[in-house]
Amino acid sequence: MRIATYNVNGINGRLNNLLGWLKETEPNIVCLQELKAPDDKFPGAAIHAAGYGAVWHGQRSWNGVAILARDAQPVEIRRGLPGDHDDTQSRYIEAAVGGMIIGCLYLPNGNPAPGPKFDYKLRWFQRLTEQAEELLATGEPVVLAGDFNVMPTGLDVYAPERWVDDALFRPEVREAYYHLVAQGWTDALRALYPGERITRSGNTSAMRSAATQVSASIICCLARHCRSGSSRPAWTATCAVVSTRAIMYRPGSNLPKEGTHHRTEADVNGPDPVGRSPGASMPARPHQPLY
């Protein structure tokens, strides 16, 4: 299983790029952010012709998220993050795909900080943390993937000293991310590449396995794993980092059998590649040295 997250930054303007990438890499599940298109302008027909079912939550000119599934139709669970009826920004969608719950998110940028946009970001982060806890309580395999707009540690940006006052790197945001992951999620990027620094040119193995080069690790594929009657951690899926990040969780009752999943350049099915116990791949707390 290969899961990718991709900030497309305007789906209609970059549709050919997206379709070409889908054809080349054939991910099983894709989470898209910044569609920048209302629901009726989403290119559903073109994506269907490429072999993908889709659900989406669009917005004119800004925001917008979507979940694609190869040779399958995602079943929408919710659109919009719970906790604020007055929030009209299209930043979260959740669907069931292939026996998993997939949450696709576009967390607010928050700049300039401090200020109202930063306050909104922190409130949104808290709502996400509460929703993540609810998802874990279901006991179902879960992936939260998207543009988290956070750099948890100094490894996640090419020049951390330049970002100290940025809303993506402020202590409050890194602390919020720490508390989210501490629920028991695994940051897939750091599970695969625990000590590599993101560079301006993308010249690391983590970025060479991505579809694009990035200068900051702000988009994420988060996963959670658990033990089930053995000492072998169970990992859910491959996460191809495409300028984004993800966290995952999968209970042990529905583990894939040997040989039934796709092999890719970032395959995390099977044992924890760095030998950690469940929940161990959390970022450093903000008060620790960052660079």
Question: Mind explaining what this structure looks like?
Answer:
By secondary structure, the chain is an alpha/beta fold. It has a domain at 80-254: Endonuclease/exonuclease/phosphatase (Deoxyribonuclease I, Chain A, 4-Layer Sandwich), CATH 3.60.10.10. Helix content is 20%, strand content 22%. It contains six helices and twelve strands. The chain has helices spanning 15-25, 44-49, 116-137, 171-181, 188-192, 205-208; strands at residues 2-7, 29-33, 52-57, 65-70, 75-79, 92-97, 100-106, 142-147, 186-187, 219-223, 238-242, 245-249. The strands form two sheets. Strands 5, 6, 7, 8, 9, 10 and 12 form a seven-stranded mixed sheet that branches. Strand 7 (100-106), helix 3 (116-137) and strand 8 form a beta-alpha-beta unit. The longest helix has 22 residues, at 116-137. The radius of gyration is 17 Å and the shape is globular. The model is unreliable at 201-217, 224-243 and 252-291 (pLDDT under 50).
Strand content: 15-25%
CATH topology of one domain: Deoxyribonuclease I, Chain A
Mean pLDDT: 77
The level 1 CATH classification of one domain is: Alpha Beta
Which of globular, elongated, flat, extended, rod-shaped describes the shape? globular
CATH-derived architecture of one domain: 4-Layer Sandwich
Low-confidence stretches: 201-217, 224-243, 252-291
> Distance N terminus to C terminus?
35 Å
The CATH homologous superfamily of one domain corresponds to Endonuclease/exonuclease/phosphatase
Give me the strand/helix succession: EHEHEEEEEHEHEHHEEE
Count of strand segments: 12
Structural class: alpha/beta
The level of helicity is 10-25%
Rg (CA only)? 17 Å
Largest sheet: 7 strands, mixed
Count of helices?
A: 6
